[in-house]
Amino acid sequence: MYVFTPKDPLLLSKTLRAHSHIHGLGLDDNLEARQSGQGMVGQIKARRAAGVMLKMIQDGNKNAGRAILMAGAPGTGKTAIAMGMAQSLGADVPFTMLAASEIFSLEMGKTEALTQAFRRSIGVRIKEESEIIEGEVVEIQIDRSTTGLGQKSGKLTLKTTEMETIYDLGVKMIEALNKEKVMAGDVIMIDKASGRISKLGRSFTRARDYDAMGSDTKFVQCPDGELQKRKEVVHTVSLHEMDVINSRSQGFLALFSGDTGEIKSEVREQINQKVGEWREEGKAEIVPGVLFIDEVHVLDIECFSFLNRALEDPLAPVVIMASNRGISKIRGTNYKSPHGLPVDLLDRLLIISTTAYSEQEIKQILTIRCEEEDVQMTEDAKDILTRIGMETSLRYAIHLITVSSFVAKKRKAIMVDVPDIKRVYSLFLDEKRSVQMLKEYQGQYMYNEVDTADREPAIGNGHGMQ
Ligand SMILES: Nc1ncnc2c1ncn2[C@@H]1O[C@H](COP(=O)(O)OP(=O)(O)OP(=O)(O)O)[C@@H](O)[C@H]1O
Ligand SMILES: [Mg+2]
Asked: Is 385 in the same domain as 370?
């Protein structure tokens, strides 16, 4: 399970390489989808629908508990759209992405894993008043005992435009000042309760003395008024984080190791009660976020009935699911159902369907991917790759970009050209050709038990729903 913060480097690199070219949904102010924007191409209807959901989430989101299913053939951009949504959410709206199969591999019960995913996706925005000291540093004076042993002590002089005060410094504060590399002329903020020091910038009055400072130096006004102030700070934590911190057997360290184990239901009840009280007192607000369950058809009947219930909880996030199945078996039963989901769950969902791309759209997506991967490709090569994308799959064509650029580099060419594409097309099979090969040579493989009736059809593969 992975929880995103929008500026998370992981969001842009490692885990999501396949979608690293996507930076949002590419909508204009009226929520209309641009043909191409923020890395997204086509799939206009689905993007617009996702945009409406996004708007609802951002606007006070009284509609928590809504659930959407994105249904469409493989490679039609379901996961990509969810990634686009994640990137357009505000900084403190939680987005949790869960590949349904993870539920079965965690060291905890399935419903516990789902509960945790739900609670990770609900933020609590807490307002706190804290006492701070804010001022410009006039002087820092640190006394070391001559032996070099013993406690350090010192004095810090801070001023505002109206007053100046000298504070005694203890060892901890000296360390904190050193760590932040605070110097005379810096404007700093000290949180009185935690002793945390943050540098706000350099005072404008010092702008001229420090020509030599880097151009990234931020200049700020010297604060006015009292040095000590009360300031309202707002921070958002998820219900799950609160559960973990308050679960005596875990402690907050578990948050870092990710090894949270199962959490007792009493702990959750306590947290819900506390949050309820804070809401009444106006100290906290609930921020329903988004839980994205990819490949949802992999869940089984127990998980589905859990989802039915969980979606009705007053503290439910917006749940987005994706399935590429047509009419197929519901896991854990012998029944078949559309998208591999039970009908009573489907009844609670709004369905967004994604459709196949046109040739032009495939070309556009491939062009964007080439830019993303820093691959230069001739127009002819792009045309061939587009044809391959149309006839096999978009994903396969995207994969060929990387390998063909490798092949081009081998022959010391700057641009990928038609022969490179041909070469990798013959080296690496797509699904259809691989199946073809299997049929031709099946006798030579081990455990050959082909029973085509058993195969779960994906949408658009000819067997499924269209
Ligand atoms: N509209 C689009 N614009 C830009 N890139 C896209 C678009 N649709 C898909 N892609 C890219 O194509 C690849 C396949 O799409 P994606 O993974 O979203 O398919 P999917 O619908 O989730 O398929 P599956 O059902 O197999 O999971 C990804 O690299 C994705 O980023
Ligand atoms: Mg997907």
From this structure: yes
Residue 18, classified by CB atoms within 10 Å of its CB into exposed (0-12), middle (13-18) or buried (19+), is middle
State whether 112 and 171 are in the same domain: no
What average pLDDT does the segment 311-330 reach? 89
Q: Tell whether 418 and 338 lie within a shared domain.
A: no
Q: Whose CA is nearest to atom 24 of ligand 1?
A: 74
Query: Does residue 74 have its Cβ closer than 6 Å to ligand 1?
Result: yes
- The alpha carbon of 350 and the centre of ligand 2 are apart by a number of angstroms equal to 18
pTM equals 0.74
Under 8 Å between Cβ of 33 and 62: no
Would you say residue 236 has pLDDT above 50?
Answer: yes
Pocket of ligand 1 contains residue 46 by CB under 6 Å: no
| One domain for residues 177 and 80 | no
Starting at the edge strand that comes first in sequence, how are the strands of the sheet with 67-72 ordered? 2-4, 95-99, 290-294, 318-323, 67-72, 349-354
Measured in whole angstroms, the distance separating CA 398 from the mean position of its chain's CA atoms is 22
pLDDT at 424 over 90: no
Tell me, yes or no, whether 367 and 418 share the same domain.
yes
Q: Are residues 191 and 229 in the same domain?
A: yes
Q: Which ligand is nearest to the CA of 17?
A: 1
Q: What is the pLDDT of residue 32?
A: 86
Whether the predicted pLDDT of 14 surpasses 50: no
Own/partner contacts of 52-60, CB < 8 Å, gap of 24 or more, are 53/85, 53/318, 53/320, 54/25, 54/85, 54/88, 54/89, 55/31, 56/318, 57/89, 57/93, 57/288, 57/289, 57/290, 57/318, 58/89, 58/90, 58/93
Query: Is 12 domain-assigned?
Result: no
Q: Is residue 382 part of a domain?
A: yes
Q: In the chain, how many domains are there?
A: 3
In this structure, are 157 and 188 located in the same domain? yes
Domain membership flag for residue 439: no
Tell which atom from ligand 1 comes closest to the C-alpha of 324.
Answer: 25
Tell me the residue range of the domain where 223 lies: 127-233
CB 19 within 8 Å of CB 101: no
Residue 395 counted as domain residue: yes
* CATH code of the domain covering residue 78: 3.40.50.300
- From 19, 38, 361, mutation site for ligand 1 pocket: most ligand atoms within 8 A of C-beta: 19
b/e 30-67 (16+ beta carbons within 10 angstroms → b): eeebeeebbbbbbbbebbbbbbebbebbeeebeebbbb
